[in-house]
């Protein structure tokens, strides 16, 4: 080797440790590595390797980091994921993926009975995404202390609809504590993520079941009737009864990714008994003749709300999710 060529010396093995990403704050990631949290950055090559991802590393990822002399870390490897919950990223660039969380057992979709009102379209998009990635999905209707007589029929309909489809549905009030124990028990022993629009009370509900979290909370705007963002970054927290929960920023849009139009119906449980009876195996249940799903809808075996929600998601898939369904 020429004298003027520096010899490359590998860093000592003890400079590399494994850990889990517990918080993402943009360019920095908090990695739980043993008994400490190491603020870490990610190697630029990960961003260059996959331009379709807005974030190569997500909360819940198992990673390897190289420890730096200043007690920060560099993420050098991202281990294979068990699963992920992701959405089509908002913005002008079509097709980019935003991974919300990785390696979870269950997703809880949080909605409020009012202020803001429930959004079944949002619910259905998350349910489809969870099913596509083999993640257990459940629902919480929060703020039941705010319910008015005129809201009851709509809530009863939604609870019955999703319960009949096989999803677990809880009714809670972070203010009164109603349903909090059932929600706490449901999270115990699992790694779960809570997701939903701003203002539905995700952080307030988590504070109610685990007071030590002390998560920031906010009020719904009286003018827009929408929540204000208080949780700005996803973060994973341990629960005192066992398990972990990921709190996420409020999401108003949830664009479905990586599904062909004909695949979408396979993630609507009430559609599945009819799929084999359609004339065409790749039927999209929109315009095709001999469609057993559309016949089931016309015979009131599939609700109007779910059928039109399906068509809305189907339309956005055809468009490449240019309009990601507010």
Blueprint (SSEs and pairs):
Layout: E1 16-24, E2 29-33, E3 36-42, H1 44-49, E4 62-67, E5 73-78, E6 84-88, E7 97-102, E8 106-112, H2 120-132, E9 136-142, H3 149-164, E10 168-171, H4 180-187, E11 191-195, H5 202-209, E12 235-238, E13 244-247, H6 272-275, H7 292-298, H8 304-318
Parallel strand pairs: 3-5, 8-9, 8-11, 9-10, 11-13
Antiparallel strand pairs: 1-2, 1-4, 2-3, 4-5, 6-7, 12-13
Helix pairs in contact: 2-8
Write a short abstract of this structure.
With 326 residues, this protein is of the alpha/beta class. It is 24% helix and 23% strand. The protein has helices at residues 44-49, 120-132, 149-164, 180-187, 202-209, 272-275, 292-298, 304-318; strands at 16-24, 29-33, 36-42, 62-67, 73-78, 84-88, 97-102, 106-112, 136-142, 168-171, 191-195, 235-238, 244-247.
CATH architecture of the largest domain: 3-Layer(aba) Sandwich
Trace the largest sheet across and list its strands: 10-9-8-11-13-12
Number of strands: 13
| Total domains | 3
Output the helix-strand order. EEEHEEEEEHEHEHEHEEHHH
Helix content: 10-25%
Class per helix and strand makeup: alpha/beta
The CATH H-level homologous superfamily of the largest domain:
P-loop containing nucleotide triphosphate hydrolases
User: What profile does the largest beta sheet have?
Assistant: 6 strands, mixed
CATH class of the largest domain: Alpha Beta
CATH topology of the largest domain: Rossmann fold
How far from one another are the termini? 62 Å
Output mean pLDDT: 87
Low-confidence stretches: 220-229, 321-326
Q: How many alpha or pi helices?
A: 8
Question: What is the 3D form?
Answer: globular
* Rg (C-alpha, Å): 22 Å
Beta percentage is 15-25%
